[in-house]
Amino acid sequence: MSKFYFPYSRLRSRIALPLATAILILVAFPFNRSLVYSLLVYGRYPPLYPHHRELELELPHYQSYEHSDVKYLWSPNHPARVGWGNIMQDYILSYVLAYATNRSFVFDDNTWAVDGTPYSHLDGKLIPSRIPLSALIDGPLAGGALPPGDNTPQAVYKDFFQRVCPNPTILRLSDVTGWNDSDTVKFIIDKWVEKITSIEDPCLQFEETSVDKQIFNYMVYSQKERLLSIWPYMSNLPVLSRWGWSPLILDAFEVNRGVIFPPALYWPEGQDSRVNQAMAGLLVIHVRRGDFTAHCRFLAKRNSDWNAFNSFPELPDKYDKVHSDPRLSPANYKAYMDHCYPSLEQIVEKVKTVREESREPLEYLYIMTNGDGSWVANLKVALHDLGGWQHIGSNRDLSLTWEQKFVAQALDMLVAQRAQAFIGNAEPTKEQLLHIFFSIPEVPVTSPSADGDKQSTPEAERMDINAVLSFGERDVEDSYAGKLHLIPPYLAFTSLDRKSVRFTLPLSTVRRVERLNARAGVYALSLSTWHGMKIIVQLTSLRPTADAFCALLREALKTELQRGQMKAVKGFVKTCYSEALISTTSSVADHEREDGSLIAETKEGTPHPEADFHGGLGLKFRFPGDPKKLREASKIKLWTTYLRTHGRNLTLLRYPQCTRLVQVGLPNRLRGEIWETLSGSLYLRYTNPGLYEQLVEDIKGKQSTSFEDIEKDLHRSLPEYAGYQTEEGISALRRVLQAYSLQNPEVGYCQAMNILAAAILIYMSEEQAFWVLEVLCDRLLPGYYSPTMHGTLLDQRVFESLVTRCLPMIHDHFSAVDVQLSVASLPWFLSLYINSMPMVFAFRIVDCFFCMGPKVLFQINGEKLLQIQDDGGFLNLMREYFASLGESAHPDSSDPRARAITRFQELLLVSFREFAVITDDTILSERRKYRNEIVYKEQVGFIYDALYKAMCVEPPPPAVAPPPSLLISTDSMQERPETRIGLKTFRVFLSEVLTWARDEKIVVNGFQQRIDSEVAEHELIDRLFYFWDTSCKGSLSFQDLVSGLDGVMSNDLMDNIEWFFNLHDKNKDGYLTKDEVLTLSESFLFIFRHEIGDAYLGAVSRFMTNAFEYGDTLLPHETNSETGKTEPQQIGHNQPYLNLATFRMVVLADEILESFFETDLTASFKLESVPDLELPTSGGGFLEDLWSNIATEDNRKIFHKLSDELGKTIGKHQVVYRPRIGRYKKLEEPKARESLISPASKSTFGSNTSDTLTASPSSTLTINAMVAQDGCPGSALSTTFSPLPHVKAVSAAFMERTPFAIDDAGDDDDSDLDMVHGEDDDQVLDEVDAFLEAHDSGLTDADQKVAKGEDL
Question: Which of 57, 652, 851, 1088 has minimal Cβ neighbours within 10 Å of its Cβ?
Fold first, then answer.
């Protein structure tokens, strides 16, 4: 049979054999696949970090250690081929063991493979087998310095250890017995510390066996009961307290801070300050994909728990194992995968929940993920649809060097560490918000162990259930329907309206729980408390739910009993004055004056025995005000009756009568205790016994900047009060402020905190005042006392908004006479009115503040404000008004009861009645609304810098002074001419702040590569110039520029569309003509002129088609006589054609244009630091003068031109224009929307250059410059809220409190008010009735019915 030969068969054989061999090699050996992939894709091998390795071999302390008696501990069998987190945890635990034995920790590389090869393959890519630890982190773990005074040896690299310890003593795991893999880490470390400290050899090394034979194997990282046992000890070690990131990581953050968190672009100069500054408003999510697809299935089948360090009791998100046997049902598998590998929809829902529950707005999002690019893009689109984001970025958007790419996980950890919220362990959840509502401490409850240390209480399950609350005694109180919450170790209740009734009971105060025998279908419990109250709770849920609640309550009570906390109640309540007040056997009243202060000596001249209950300086130095005028005795009687019936201190029940009594004013002697009960600081003091005393001990001998600031303000804190004219009062104030600054170093001390502390110390002991200050600064007034005072500044803006809404006449009058509310209101808020009005009245406001929350600060109002003409008049009027608060509101009335009503009483009544619409929800909503107006003050400086540079490049025409007027006297000061810029200077200015207002081209000519920037010229820029020239002067002032930028840089999607429309609406009639539509299209083409591909060109083409199509539909139609068809009426090119609503429809019909107006337009305006201009030097000598003459700008241009010509000659000249928007880089066009009626889901893409003018909680200035109306002359920079110019004056005002005569402690014998107690009681009750009638705690009839369950 003949053979057929194909042509070129031999040649094909020669090619096929090597090709087949190559394919076989690539298929058979993954390492080779990875090698080829890396070389083809990257063109180089992964980095080996030689520089970092050299630094580890030459640490500064090696020289002294080489010839000393330093002891070392080396554990070579660290885990390999596991994640970076597992390796770091192993290193940290090994460091803890070395530190506990006073030995130098020997560190190794971050190791993937231990086979000695430089590279390994992972997921088809080459990676370094070993990365020096110093390329990832800094600090003691990598050989960094320890705190001063810590004599533990610093860590050393393994090569140094092997050099100084060639023959170390080998430790084997079998050398220590009595422990196994089920023991806690603390127990294991204690065992090994005992063994290691008994060995004298300075060189110790664990046996170098396989990595599965370790002291701390990888299983411990998911066993929270084992690992968290070491946390109390480990958390205070320098390995964590001085943890840092390597310079390589810090550099990566510096380059990418605009992508990660755009406001970081405006942080102060200096890398350390930028890295250490928290990123307020940033939400970080870690979403692992890729390898987790299979890994999560593996973890689910093994029933693995969360990482132990993600399982602290105080962290909001929890995960309970869903099955306890190897069998895995579909339901269990789904429950596990929902946590381990959530879907895109679940991720979005989680982000949405976290943002809704956050106390502070989260407007920036950073995604840490190993997902592929398309998945990340889809996630961004889905998250963007939630709305409200200023910026969304991901680690896929980062620009990293070759070395940084392989350690980028450390950069992610840096970002997560500094973010405000990290999903899974940082953001308040509904449970935490519930803690805030019930004033329950968010810190974990601790209990003393046998050895005196604090131990964490095992987490108990929470539950809530519908219930009806009533008293055991009839006719004491009405019944209220609501919800009963078990929040171990507390039991809490709130009525349905969340206003009428609430209580928070520590479970340790519950003495007995009984199931009541009631009629069928009714499930009721009787709770007996420490103070003898009997509370009946009817559980109105289904029987199985009620049984489950009772079972959990039983377990929680057992836990409290085992902790011994029930024994602590007896000793704690003795510190509360209410116990002595209620006691029938107490003689405390015999030792008190009428105002509540203590009589120093008995009639016999001997001192009274020291009482157990706490009290403030008022006990010794008297309380402010006249006790008879304040009706102290009657208030004490009313409160005694209420406390005897409704519990006290730890068991206080807050019924409507409680709120009314607070509004009338607390008696001096009970004020401190009620304050700490209402605020929740009582529970902090209860659960943290001895902490304040320990802080006071720790303060001794310490110095800090906060301590120095405290010393400056001590003698300026309520100096008119007698207690602060003595060393006793000053010392108490000093200890409280210093203890707080030590406990909260991130806040430290802020001006005005001294006023608060001084005020509450009058009524509270030092320990009580410390915990109240903690609650005030952390929960009730967040951001008020931070270095930037951003919380106060924000609330000033909210206050102005509420005045505009509720008091429009006052707002209009203040605007007309240019009076700033913040001149007076800023100190009101910062000092809770204590420094602004007589203390006896200010404390009444503080009473309401602790009872009803921060909304009280916004409800207080004033009178006669329409008579004010300037800031000075405003301040004088408020000072006079506050001084007259004790006078009669109706002095001419014939009714003695009306004459007895003071101005302060009327003020409170009017405030709570007229402004009851101001609720907590109102305040939260307003804060979210105006937070975007708080911006960094540096941005104003950036505008000025850009303007100054533009004026240097293109000087404006000289300003012409106004002609002298005959009506102006010769001695009057002539107004300085205003600096204004023309169109040419404006073009240069705009090129500094607007990306598409300049042409940037990358020039490569074979000799150099440079970036040339040129000012763009186009009709759009000229149009913008005249659009901002609202005063029609043909030039722009600095105010015009700020106002113009403010009008576009903070816009949302719809605002930007309207702004762009108005920019092209020449005659401002609300319509675009056909010519203006064409001009607008040309503007689009100009903006998109350098974008890659045809996507933007296609968007403009579609815009023109749709604009004329939709515009024609709005025109009147007429019938063509020839064809009989109905056609749009023909109009001229200068006739109104397209209105704003239609323009919006056209824009929103196109995905690219919508994306441009939603984010890109605003992002294209960039306020950044302008580089310093190069100024000519003088006096530098002949050579410098010669060089300055050579290296001129003109000579540079000549050189560039010459090099370009040479490049063209040799064929190496190339010019590439930089895109100005840079979103769509692919050639394929996104499709237009199919329907305007039901458009498809919008799609947005991440931008690496989204640096917008954004808001920040740490801001210090508000800009909302108002653009003048057409035809109106411009004026100086006008802002709706600019408190910073007044901050210094306000601070001075704090220290110069107006002395009010009514503040003086009254003498019992000098009072002209001699009422019998019965009449006095009637007046107090009348005032309570007035509140009942006029305000009734803000409850409507419907609210009361709901609260009492009458609608059930």
Answer: 57
pLDDT at 1205: 82
**CB–CB of 363/388 below 8 Å?**
yes
Contacts for 254-260 with beta carbons within 8 Å, 24 or more apart? Answer: 255/399, 256/397, 256/398, 256/399, 256/400, 256/411, 258/1249, 258/1250, 258/1251, 259/393, 259/397, 259/398, 259/399, 259/1248, 259/1250, 260/366, 260/393, 260/398, 260/415
Read off the pLDDT of each residue in 465-490 and give the average, rounded to a whole number.
84
Over residues 1193-1242, the pLDDT tens digits come to 677 778 778 888 888 888 877 887 778 775 544 434 344 333 322 233 33
Distance, CA of 42 to CA of 39 (rounded, Å) = 5
Pairing of strands 1117-1119, 1126-1128: antiparallel
Burial 1239-1261 (b: 16+ CB within 10 A, else e): eeeebbbbbebbbbbbbbbbbbb
Distance (Å, whole) CA 594 – CA 611: 18
Mean pLDDT, all residues of the chain: 75
* Helical segments of 476-520, H only: none
Place of tokens 């006896």: 840
Between the alpha carbon of residue 314 and those of residues 310, 426, 822, the distances in Å are 10, 10, 39
Give residue 303's Cα distance to chain centre.
35
- Best CA proximity match to 256, nearest among 379, 373, 414: 414
**Cβ proximity of 573 and 579 under 8 Å:** yes
Strands lying side by side in the sheet with 998-1004: 1009-1015, 998-1004, 1214-1217
- The Cα 538–Cα 526 span in angstroms is 9
What token pair was written down for 39? 């070389």
What values do phi and psi take at 45, rounded to 5? -80, 160
The confidence score (pLDDT) of residue 738 equals 94
- Per-residue model confidence (pLDDT) at position 1141: 86
| Cα 769 from Cα 693, distance rounded (Å) | 13
- Facing residues of 512 across strands? 528
What is the Cβ-side half-sphere exposure of residue 578, based on CA atoms within 13 angstroms? 28
Residue 649 is predicted with a pLDDT of: 92
Q: Long-range contacts for 47-53 (Cβ within 8 Å, ≥24 apart)?
A: 47/128, 47/402, 47/403, 47/406, 48/118, 48/128, 49/128, 49/131, 49/132, 49/135, 49/403, 52/132, 52/134, 52/135, 52/246, 52/248, 53/132
For the CA atoms of 1066, 1071, 1076, 1077, the dihedral, rounded to the nearest 10 degrees, stands at 150
Higher local confidence (pLDDT), 1319 or 381: 381
Rounded to 10 degrees, the C-alpha dihedral 491/494/495/497 comes to: -160
Q: Is the peptide bond before 489 cis (omega within 30 degrees of 0)?
A: yes
pLDDT tier, 155 (very low <50, low <70, confident <90, very high otherwise): very high
Length of the chain (residues): 1352
**Number of neighbours of residue 766 by Cβ within 10 angstroms:** 20
128: DSSP letter:
E
Q: For residues 1153-1182, b (16+ Cβ closer than 10 Å) or e, as one string?
A: bbbbbbbbbbbbbbbbebeeeeeeeeeeee
* CA-based nearest residue to 1070, from 1142, 1022, 1021, 1147: 1142
Cα–Cα–Cα angle for 713, 717, 718, rounded to 5 degrees: 160
Mean pLDDT of all residues in 107-119: 82
CA 1339 to mean position of chain CA atoms: 33
CB of 824 within 8 A of CB of 737? no
- In terms of average pLDDT, the best of 13-17, 464-468, 790-794, 1287-1291 is 464-468
Question: What pairs with residue 1009 in β-bridges?
Answer: 1004
Q: How many CA atoms lie within 13 A of 59 on its CB side?
A: 27
The type of residue at 554 is R
- Statement: residue 285 has pLDDT above 60: yes
% of the chain beyond a pLDDT of 90: 19
Question: Which amino acid is present at 279?
Answer: M
